[in-house]
Amino acid sequence: MNLVSSYLRTALQLAEQGMPVLPLREGKGPMGNCRACRKNACGGRPNMKTPGPCTCPAPCHAWAAATTDPSILTSAVWAPAWRQAAAVAYHPGGAGLTVVDLDNPDAVTWAGQSLPATRAVATTRGEHWIYLGTMTSTNAVRPGMDIKSVMSYARWLGAGTGTMAQLPDVVRSLAVKEAPAARPASSTLTVSAPAGGGQCPHRSPAYLERGIAMAEQRIEEAPDGIHRTVFRMFLAVLSAHGRCGCLTDKHIGRLFSVAQAKGESLRHCEDAWTNARTQLGM
Q1: Residue 77, Cβ neighbours under 10 Å: how many?
Q2: What confidence tens digit (pLDDT) does each residue in 9-56 have?
Q3: I need a surface site. Which of 13, 37, 163, 232 has the fewest CB within 10 A?
Q4: Burial level of 28, CB count in 10 A (0-12/13-18/19+)?
Q5: Number of Cα atoms under 13 Å in the Cβ half of residue 147
Q6: What is the dihedral of CA 109, 115, 120, 124, to 10 degrees?
Q7: How far is CA 31 from the centre of its chain?
């Protein structure tokens, strides 16, 4: 059996068990958006901000493409994706699960000392600990530790060993501390807009709005390298709008919110903003 049929067979077996699946390309990333969905042209779920499948028939939109429907998985539309596939992934939240991704031995050691035992799956650099129950997906809740559940995907690496335990409060609390995006932006941000004082080049508020909207879109559409993308967009916004006083805390809140929706922690957003200001001498 070739790799294409092997990945597809695995996907069909998982789908039969009620686990929404999707193919991953080389590098463990999801397939890129199809022609109809590029630059949000489809008007469907390109921003992936709410749970549920994408209405597009192609396997784009990352986790939102995951499905349990065998007729979709084996359709001609999905065939090119399976030919490019380098792995199979699943949407943990769609299967009622949460994956604690432990990315190094230190993180595994911490989990063994701090978290209830549950099913464990060996990964290239650490382990996936899988719990019954769903929660907000959050990256970098601790060094070497991400939480993947609702609106996220995890690579399928086998059934693992051990009995799945119920999702404990200690795991939920990790996300609360590192991902306060659900609260109003004004209560979470510890950075502020530059004071301004330079000559304003804007002829209308629309100029600033276009700049913020473009930065939001670039962050939303970033397929990988989210840390770099967030920093570059913060740098671009500050470079164009940071010296005249037009940029407000509300604008910063919008940028932070879209970055956190892509999995950035508040700490990483604050660090990226501070580093961008430092590079520009603000």
Answers
A1: 12
A2: 999 999 999 999 999 988 888 888 888 777 667 765 544 555 666 778
A3: 163
A4: middle
A5: 28
A6: -40
A7: 14
